[in-house]
Amino acid sequence: MTQQILISTAAIFGLLAVIFGAFGAHALKKILSPEQLKSFEVGVRYQMYHAIVLLVLGFNSKQTSPAIYWCFTIGILLFSFSIYGLVMSDALEKKLRILGPITPIGGLLLAIGWGLLLLNVI
């Protein structure tokens, strides 16, 4: 995985996390219940954590395997974005239940990414 791809992906996810976080704190605060807002914030937080990890990996790209990159990237998309979809669809009273099983798959990919990172260092 090239340094440019890693850092670009990190920047996109970081940018979106800031935008979604601000959107949640201001616009959605009036629409979402406290529980829904808390779930939305979990998605934003995990997205930002992993954007930062991708950024750090970008500065060490020679030691980063493509598998780590893909686990984190797909994990963010499945975990955080399914949470956004679940929260928003619930708020609109049209809950997309199909997204429910996607969230833990994303979380599993994030965990696998961390495990691969550990193995890569060892």
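Above is the first protein from milestone M3; the second protein from the same milestone is given next.
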Amino acid sequence: MIRVCLVYSPAARQVEEVTLELPDGATAQMALQASGWLDRWPEIHDLPVSVWGRKASATQALREGDRLEWCRPLRVDPKIARRERFVGQGARTAGLFSRRRPGAKPGY
């Protein structure tokens, strides 16, 4: 028997985590079925799975202590979100050089 941890975030600031004991040679798909999460969130079947943050397949054999994570797609591209935040904040109030010492040269 191996012990694995399953993690899924169905919505922002909401995390579901469960620890299961599975037989040796169990796969990510078997872990998902054993957890009962398919009944609660049917869309989880189509989401990519990762083991400790590294992309994995549903047929990959699991090892003791693995952490399976199901990843929702991003709603907003992080680059675009950062660009929009910067426009809203203005160039003088954001970034590395926002709080300069009095009399310092620009960019330092």
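Note on the second protein: The longest strand covers residues 2-11.
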